[in-house]
Amino acid sequence: MTVPFLQVSGLNKNFGGLQALRDCSFAIEKGRITCLVGPNGAGKTTVFNAITGFLRPESGSVQFQGRSLDRLPPRAIVRSGIARSFQNLRLYADMTVLENVTSALPGQFGEQPLSAIFRPFRTARAMRQANEQAAGILEHVGLGDQARVWTRNLSYGEQKLLCIARLLATGADLLLLDEPTSGLSGEALDRVMALLRRLQAEGKSQLVVEHNTRVVMAIADEVVFLHGGHVLAQGSPAEITADPALAEIYFGGAL
Ligand SMILES: Nc1ncnc2c1ncn2[C@@H]1O[C@H](COP(=O)(O)OP(=O)(O)OP(=O)(O)O)[C@@H](O)[C@H]1O
Ligand SMILES: [Mg+2]
User: Fold this and answer.
1) Which CATH architecture has domain 1-81+172-255?
2) Which sequence spans correspond to the domains of the chain?
3) What pTM was computed for the model?
4) Ligand 1 pocket check for 40: Cβ under 6 Å
5) Is residue 129 classed as helix, strand or coil in its secondary structure?
6) How far is the CA of 2 from the centre of ligand 2 (A)?
7) Is there an atom of ligand 1 within 6 Å of 20 CB?
């Protein structure tokens, strides 16, 4: 039997009596875009937090390429090849766009400050390499012209692209994107969708929390439907969106 790329098995997570994850299990395949959908409060962000080590589930486990991620700290999980974005972006508003990307490159944290004193040329070269690498990533996401701009001056759509650039900087093979298109419409929405498809063509696997059915239909190879912290259904976008019971759960309360 082949090992799934990412396997989430039987996660349970309680917040003071509220069961945010309830025997939550699903698998995703390498190279695909899997959309994680479900009503507000379904537990989608909690799943991301559990996969990436930001919270410890009471039970269950996560395997990535056959290796357990359980008990690994978030930084070790990034090093293993999984990077996640946040619903509220978490960019450094007072840094330039380029600095937001260089700060996400591996090895940028925990660098030896003393090496700047004792090995100034080596440090300068490393900085130049980091800047070049970050500039290439910005070019790739369509922000090449904005490298020197203060991040707070970017449009919201550009900030969303910058979040993805930061994930790419980690070098991760699996990207977990928490609502990468929320708040976007028109051209800004199209840019993010086109980028996600392009990254897939380049081999990046993606798990994407997405509320917009049109986006799900356009980008997803597979859809996981979460409700009350439990996976109710998994299938193709056409199967999931055509299921009247799921539509009732999704829209029933809201509309
Ligand atoms: N740190 C926390 N402490 C207490 N309750 C939490 C915490 N994180 C999440 N919850 C609760 O767990 C449930 C699932 O939350 P989660 O953020 O995972 O939902 P979601 O599917 O991402 O929703 P949305 O679509 O609104 O982003 C919600 O009822 C939420 O209020
Ligand atoms: Mg959420």
Assistant:
1) 3-Layer(aba) Sandwich (3.40)
2) 1-81+172-255, 94-171
3) 0.93
4) yes
5) helix
6) 31
7) yes
